[in-house]
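Lecture notes, unit on protein representations.

Consider one protein chain, 49 amino acids long.
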Amino acid sequence: MKFVESGELEAEDVPKITTIQNWISTYARTFKEQATENMVKDIRDESSL
């Protein structure tokens, strides 16, 4: 909050903790889904050899 106190940022411009947590959760879920899809694809590719 140093930047808000110094006037460099407005408090409204700083995302809430819940917003940041949602961003992280969404990213993690998307990453895991993509990793799973890649793993399934790799297994299918290996079994077709």
